[in-house]
Write a structure and sequence with these properties.
This protein is mainly beta. It is built from no helices and 5 strands. The protein has a 3-stranded antiparallel beta sheet with strand order 1-4-3, with no helix packed on it.
């Protein structure tokens, strides 16, 4: 969360409104890096996050008698990281020939 104050929300908080919660990922070596945000658990669609701003929004009514707190886990993914992986080919089977010498004729001869 961007601020360090406690995240306390009244159970009658309006649905479809941004909560007073905003996350922001920062990397001190790459301060201009752009991140996309997602929720690891949205508690059955109760919460959503704006992937660009990190603002968390209430999507379903809260009920204090059903749950006194929620743990929201946010995943921040850097959008400028690109990885290239090269594959090496491992022979699944050994090659074998039925003849000791193989030949071919080209038509027309070279």
């Amino acid at each position: 969360d961007v601020d360090t104050s406690a995240n306390t929300i009244p159970e009658n908080f309006a649905v479809d409104q941004d909560l007073p919660i905003r996350v922001q990922a920062l990397h001190e070596d790459f301060p201009d890096r752009v991140y996309k945000y997602s929720l690891l658990n949205d508690h059955d669609g109760r919460f959503e996050i704006n992937e660009d701003t990190g603002r968390v929004r209430l999507r379903k009514r809260l009920d204090f008698e059903a749950a006194t707190s929620y743990t929201i886990v946010v995943v921040a993914t850097a959008t400028d990281l690109v990885f290239v992986t090269r594959l090496t080919n491992n022979q699944d089977q050994s090659l074998f020939f039925l003849q000791e010498q193989l030949g071919a004729e080209l038509d027309p001869p070279v």
